Amino acid sequence: MATRPNVLEFTRARFATLVVLLAAFVLLGSACNEHAFSSNGQGEYSWTHGPRRVVVKSLGEIEFTPDDGDVAKLSTDGYLMLEESLGWDSKIVEFSPGPNGQIRKRLLVEGKEQPFDDESEAWTRRLLLEVIRRTGLAAESRARRILASGGYPAFASELERIQSSSSAASYVEVAFETGNLTEEEQADLLRNLADYVHSDSQRADLLRQVSGHAMSETMREPFFDAVDRIGSDSSRANLLSELLRNVEADATIMIRLLESAGRIGSDSSKAQLLTEAATELPPGAAVREAFLSATTRIGSDSSKTRVLESLLPAAENDAELLTAIAETATIIGSDSNKASLLSQAARHAGRDARGREAFFAATETIGSSSNRLHVLASVLDAPQVDALSLSRLYRAGATMGSDSNKADLMVRSLAAYQNDPEVRRAFFEMAGTIGSNSNRAHVFGSMLALPSLDAETVLALIESTESIGSDSNKADVLASVAQRHDSDPRISPRLRRAAKTIGSDSAYRRVIGELQPETEASKGEG
C-alpha cells in the first residue's frame, strides 16, 4: 500500500506530459505536411496533422476493390503498409501477396498482432481511402475504373476529393489519355485544373503532357487560360517555350501563345521566350501585333531591344514588319539601346514611305547626339540612299544638339549627295542650324571638294556662307568657291556680293584675289 501514491503520482505526471506534448503537436504541427519519394517501384509517404501522423509504404503494382475499401490485387513482389499514430498510440495494417492470388492482411496495434473485427475493418477502409486520395496509389487503374463505371461526372466528383496536387495531376493525365472524354469534358477539366492541382510546376508538367489534345478550337482557350494561371514565371515560360517548339502553331495558336507570354512577369523570361518565337512567327498582321504587344510589356530596355533585334532578319523582306519595329522602338527609353536597334534596321530605312517616316521619327526620339549620329550614319552605309531618304536624314540630323556631330554627319553624307531640289533644300536647312562657324565652314569646304556640283547647289552654298559670323571662315569658303566655280557666269556675280559681307579688309581681298577681273557685263549684273 505504501507504493500506491507514488504510482498514482507517476501516472498523473505521465498524463500531464502527454497533455503538454499533445498541445505542442497542435501548435507546431497543425498544418499538413506531405513527403513522397519513389525509386525502383518503391514509395514511402508520410503526413502529419497535429498529433496525428500517417505513414505509407508501398512496393509493386496495387489494385483496389471497386469501393476502395480493400486491396484487390498485388503483384508477386507487392506490399502495402499503412500506419496511423496518435501520440503514443499506433495502428498498422499490412497487405502482402498470399497463395492463389489472395491477399494476406495483418493488423498490428501497439506492435502486437490483433484479429480483425468490425471496428478495425472500418478503420482500415477509412484510412485506405484517405491514402488512396492523398498518395495517388494505383491512380491510373483507379481513374480508368471510375471513368468506365461513372463517366465524367463521377470522375470530376472524385477529383474534388483528391487531397494531393501530384495525385490529382495523375488522375487528370489518365483522363486525357483514355480518350473517353468529350472535348467539352476535357475543356471543363482544364478550366478547373487550378482547383485540383495547386503546384505551379506540377500543373505546368501536366499541361505539357496534355498539350497535344488541347489545340482544337474548343480546347484552345481553356488550355491557355490554365497556362495563364501558372503563377511561376519560369514554369510558364518553360511550358510556352516547349509548346513553341513542339506544337505546329497556326496563327490563332501563336497569337494566344504570345498573349500568354505577355503576361509573364519576369522581363528576362518574357524576352527569352519572345526571342525564340521571333523565328517561328506565321505571317499576318494579327500575329505581328500580338508579338509587339507582348514586347511592349517588357519593362527592361535592354530586354525589349533584344527581342526587337531578333525580329530584324524576318523584317528584311517584310516592309510592314520593319515599320512596326521602328514604331515600337519609340517606347525604348535608353538612347543607347534604341540606337543599337535602329542602326541595325538603318539599311532598310528607305524601303517605303511609311517605313521611312517611322524609322526617322524613332531616330528623332534619341536625345543623345552621338547616338543619333550613329544611327543616321548607319543609313549612309546602305549600298544606295535615295533622295527621299537623304533629305529626311538631314531633317532628322538638324535637331541634334551638337554642332560637331551635325558637321560630321553632313560630311559623311556627301558621298551620297544628289543634285536634287529637295535634298539641296534639306541639306542647307540643316547647315543653317550649325552655330559653330568653323564646323559649318568645314562642311562647305568638304562639299566644294566634290567632283561635280550643279550651279543651284553652289549658289545655295554661297547664300548660307553669308551667315557665317567669322570673316576668316567665311573667306575660306568663298575663296574655295572662287577657285572652282568663278568661270560660271551665274556664280561669279553672286560670289562678289557675298564677299562684300566680309568685314575684314584682308579677308575680303583674299576672296576677291581669287576672282577673275569683272567684265563690263558682269559689273552691270552686280
Keywords:
single chain, 526 residues, alpha+beta, seven-stranded antiparallel sheet, two-stranded antiparallel ribbon, 26 helices, 9 strands, 60% helix, rod-shaped, disordered N terminus
What is the overall shape?
rod-shaped
> For this entry, what is the oligomeric state of its chains?
single chain
- The end-to-end distance, rounded to whole angstroms, is 146 Å
Mean pLDDT, as a whole number?
88
Using only CA atoms, what is the Rg? 42 Å
Helix/strand structural class: alpha+beta
User: Could you name the ranges where pLDDT drops below 50 across 5 or more consecutive residues?
Assistant: 1-5, 17-31, 36-41
Helical content band:
55-70%
Number of strands: 9
Strand order of the largest sheet: 1-2-3-6-7-8-9
- What is the overall number of helices? 26
Strand content: 5-15%
User: How can the largest sheet be summarized?
Assistant: 7 strands, antiparallel
Describe this entry's structure for a reader.
By secondary structure, this protein is of the alpha+beta class. It is built from 26 helices and nine strands. It has helices spanning 4-28, 118-135, 139-159, 165-178, 183-191, 193-196, 200-210, 217-228, 233-246, 251-262, 267-277, 285-296, 301-315, 319-329, 335-345, 353-363, 369-379, 387-398, 403-413, 421-431, 437-448, 455-465, 471-485, 492-499, 505-513, 520-525; strands at residues 33-39, 42-49, 52-59, 62-64, 71-74, 79-86, 89-97, 103-109, 112-114. It has a seven-stranded antiparallel beta sheet with strand order 1-2-3-6-7-8-9, covered by helices on one side. The termini are far apart. The model is unreliable at 1-5, 17-31 and 36-41 (pLDDT under 50).
